[in-house]
Task: inverse folding
């Protein structure tokens, strides 16, 4: 009798303990998503899609105080606004078609500008597979009725699946009774079974995570520079075409910059670890940049210096907390929206099919992040090599010559073109680009081009080869 | 101008893929409409279906090394995005759930095909 009673007591104790340690989402579980940008929306989208597929009913609250219907900073998420070739294809395969009102310009080529000449690198399949868009509703003074925000479009997709957008600012995060508790701007608060942090690195919320148990060291950041210039659609199309213009210039401390055409605006994006106003002015006044600019462009109508995630967050998850997009792990310099998609979907998959404990995220979410982290290590090597090559006139000429030759010949193997295309568009992992540079054909042609660059010649601008029929 | 800003524009009647040819990509309609046709036994082309924005075709070439089973042409001006086989399979290897959306559509098409076969049998009994 005694042993039976003990057994029942043990069973009850085990039951209580297992209930306390139950990290699976159930019908009615409440999920908070802090930040309504792409990372938050992709996480919510896949969470709700997968939940619907297994008949699980979840309550998803997305906390986003901004309205993406506003022009300028009030509705902006401080981003260059390029959706990479690989993400455009992945979204299409997922059934997400970006409407024309969202895509400000379908990009079909990149033009690389150097002091030694220019080269146009066409999309490998001669179609528009890169989207230039606005994360918010366009720059200050925008007011373009034809424009639809990318973040707003994704948010509408998610609310269509049943998520609720709460226009509240989160002012604090705590752990109460083994569950995360969010404090709202109006003094109220709410407890959740899972919190997905998707507020990026430009939000104060990232510093509040230290109040949660766990090892939440914020990622290393640097500042970028984004500026919008206004012109007319016709002039922008005439000068910039349907191409993104990138610059490899020998300006001290300069790393990378791009000019992106978007409707009646052009976006100038600069990234680097040592950006300041002096460098921005040096870039904008460089003769190579000046000749690429629309002649009737107004002075900068909207600008910002957002923080850019440069390194991995040490542990972007904990019990009932997961960090997606820029808040956690992202790709180095490129394809931040693609990284938001990958980490958002991986976190949602883990939460639905495995659980929301730190162990579940470690096993099922972290591998996706780790792949990005490892790829970024190779990316650092690639960018360092690029910096060395762009700082030497000889190697700049060699790179230009090799890419020009490939673009002019119909059947040439596009070694350098593919490298530059992937490097600038962010369409391929850095590991894949690095492998490409080890191919004998790449090395042989680069050496030939270095040899040819030693011979003095006139500056040349390459015409792209004829498009395939 | 046809809806959607990505992909490639095909003019009315322009062939996008042709039955019997080999292929290494699938396609997603971004705007406008395309028509799926098959060579009929009597000669000529037989209409199978229309596909609209968001619909995809040519997916069989991604999963098997057979030739295209149908011809697809633009019905009016259409904008169509090509998805590379290698890129898609690489993404599916990293994220198997990506294939679920494709499986859903393929499952829907098999169901539709079964209904067509049943209807066909009924009319010939």
Result:
């Amino acid at each position: 009798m005694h042993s039976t009673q003990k057994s029942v007591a043990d069973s009850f104790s085990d039951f209580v303990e297992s209930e306390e340690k139950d990290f699976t989402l159930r019908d009615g579980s409440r999920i908070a998503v802090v930040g309504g940008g792409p990372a938050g929306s992709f996480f919510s989208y896949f969470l709700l899609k997968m939940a619907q597929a297994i008949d699980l009913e979840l309550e998803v609250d997305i906390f986003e105080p901004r309205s993406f219907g506003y022009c300028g900073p009030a509705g902006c998420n401080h981003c260059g606004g390029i959706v990479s070739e690989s993400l455009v294809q992945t979204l299409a395969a997922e059934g997400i078609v970006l409407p024309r009102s969202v895509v400000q310009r379908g990009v079909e080529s990149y033009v690389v500008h150097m002091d030694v000449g220019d080269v146009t690198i066409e999309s490998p399949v001669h179609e528009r597979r890169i989207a230039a868009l606005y994360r918010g509703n366009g720059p200050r003074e925008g007011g373009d009725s034809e424009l639809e925000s990318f973040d707003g479009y994704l948010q509408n997709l998610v609310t269509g699946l049943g998520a609720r957008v709460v226009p509240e600012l989160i002012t604090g995060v705590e752990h109460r009774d083994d569950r995360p508790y969010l404090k709202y701007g109006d003094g109220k608060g709410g407890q959740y079974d899972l919190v997905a942090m998707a507020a990026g690195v430009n939000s104060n919320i990232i510093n509040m995570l230290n109040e949660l148990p766990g090892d939440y060291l914020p990622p290393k950041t640097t500042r970028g520079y984004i500026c919008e210039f206004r012109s007319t659609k016709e002039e922008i199309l005439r000068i910039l075409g349907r191409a993104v213009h990138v610059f490899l210039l020998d300006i001290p401390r300069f790393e990378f910059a791009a000019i992106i055409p978007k409707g009646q605006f052009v976006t100038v994006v600069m990234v680097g670890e040592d950006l300041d106003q002096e460098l921005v002015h040096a870039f904008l006044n460089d003769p190579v940049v000046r000749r690429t600019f629309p002649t009737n462009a107004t002075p900068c109508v909207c600008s910002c210096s957002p923080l850019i995630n440069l390194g991995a967050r040490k542990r972007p998850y904990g019990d009932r907390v997961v960090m997606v997009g820029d808040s956690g792990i992202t790709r180095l310099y490129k394809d931040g929206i693609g990284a938001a998609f990958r980490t958002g979907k991986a976190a949602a998959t883990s939460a639905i099919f495995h659980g929301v404990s730190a162990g579940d995220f470690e096993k099922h979410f972290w591998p996706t992040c780790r792949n990005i982290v490892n790829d970024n290590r190779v990316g650092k090597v690639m960018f360092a090599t690029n910096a060395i090559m762009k700082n030497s006139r000889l190697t700049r000429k060699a790179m230009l010559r090799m890419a020009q030759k490939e673009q002019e010949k119909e059947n040439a193997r596009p070694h350098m073109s593919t490298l530059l295309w992937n490097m600038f568009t962010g369409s391929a992992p850095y590991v894949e680009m690095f492998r490409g540079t080890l191919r004998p054909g790449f090395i042989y042609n680069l050496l030939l081009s270095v040899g040819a660059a030693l011979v003095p010649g006139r500056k040349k601008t390459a015409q792209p080869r004829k498009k395939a029929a | 101008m046809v809806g959607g800003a990505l992909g490639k524009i095909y003019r009315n009647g322009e062939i996008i893929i042709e039955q019997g040819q080999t292929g290494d990509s699938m396609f997603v309609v971004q705007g406008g409409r395309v028509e799926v046709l098959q060579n009929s036994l009597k000669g000529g082309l037989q209409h199978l279906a229309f596909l609209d924005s968001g619909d995809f075709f040519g997916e069989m070439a991604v999963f098997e090394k057979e030739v295209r089973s149908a011809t697809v042409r633009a019905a009016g001006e259409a904008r169509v995005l090509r998805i590379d086989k290698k890129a898609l399979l690489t993404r599916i290897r990293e994220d198997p759930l990506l294939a679920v959306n494709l499986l859903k559509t393929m499952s829907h098409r098999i169901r539709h095909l079964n209904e067509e076969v049943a209807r066909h049998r009924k009319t010939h009994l």
